[in-house]
Hints:
By secondary structure, this protein is α/β, with parallel strands linked by helices. The chain is built from nine helices and twelve strands. It has helices at 28-37, 49-59, 94-106, 119-126, 130-137, 151-163, 183-197, 215-220, 250-263, and strands at 6-10, 41-44, 65-67, 72-75, 86-89, 111-113, 142-147, 166-170, 175-179, 204-209, 223-226, 243-245.
Amino acid sequence: MSGPALILFSDLDGTLLDHDTYDWSPAQAALEQLAVLEIPLVLTSSKTRAEMEALRRAMGNHHPFIVENGAATVIPKDYFETGPEQVTCLGAGRDDILAHLQRLRAQGFRFAGFADMTDEEVATHTGLDLEGASKARDRIATEPLLWQGPEADLAAFRLALEAAGLQLLAGGRFLHVMGRFDKADAMAQLARRYRTRWPGRNWRTVALGDSPNDQAMLAGADLAVVMAGPGASRITLPTGQRVMRSRQPGPVGWNECVLDILERDEYH
């Protein structure tokens, strides 16, 4: 690899992808510049492996990626060394999560997860087509859900999950039940792989996100890029954190911020 020793870890919905249309074309200029400079762009999302693989093919992205809010990292074949594709899970399996959610439902908590929905229902809630909805339901170690109970019960639901070693994260559209891992854990794992494979380079991480489920990843990066949007005001970062904030949401803001980063002398 040549060029600046940067690794970009980017959220998708509301960040690189338009929140409503899932379009990334306004970011094309920045994406092309990253490719020219051979700067890794690690797509990092609540999306599933199947969804991410289709998106990466469409974008022409060939770098590792992070699925289901950090549930697993996927390293393409022959990327760091010669060998097959590597999928590494960081948390509890989905079957365990679903079993616990069933117990909580029996206690009176009201919610609907992807496992409770048909492809048609998931399509209605997400705007995806049926094929996309099916891919969204094909999960490794997380369960998105819509809360249907009183707001007052949500705190008790969260505590019950924590007692079982699980957590509840708020995403752009859904609440996500998952193990005690997050995007930051997956980002750190992949950053170590880059530093081990190319130890002579001064790797620096840039994270881009727009909602509270990106907070840990943003806080763990050398530079945090907080995208404009309804969730941005709920992101709290450590004192002294290097932060850039986009003026516009989605791929338009993403494009402006990434091009600005690439033009700075400190990254050359």
